[in-house]
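Table S4 entry, DUF2802 domain-containing protein.
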Amino acid sequence: MNELILFWLPFSLSSAALVGVLVVLIATLRSRDDQTKLLQLFEKIRGEGVSASQLQALADELDQLKLEQAQFNGTLEQQLQRRVAEAQTQLEQQQANFAEHVKQQLSEQQNAIQEVAEQDLESKFYQRAARLVQQGATLEEVMEACELPRAEAELLYNLYKK
């Protein structure tokens, strides 16, 4: 699972970045088209003798273009925010999955270590005694359950009691 996350994480982040770049590129191209229209309008005004009514019509057209540009920019910003939020959600989900996977592996390794430790016959009694003390057993219960001499049981009891 770890390898799966490590494989897909860069791919998903790269895809999100590519989408963002494409959106910015489209916005830039559209902005250039609008700029071209504005330049054409200015050239028209400069090249011809324009009446006041024509000038007003051109001003209205300019206002309309500005309004369209503002709407487009707002839409573009919303799309970018939505895509960034989606990418962040995916990243958080992948991080959560990875964290869960790491916790599971850690738990498995701790269990394996515990099994290996319990296989050591000499330490088996001491580990069992330590667990009993941590669970609240009395000194006598520890001595009986683990067949330990009083001195060893007292040592473990003092070492592990809460």
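The chain is about 90% helix and 0% strand.
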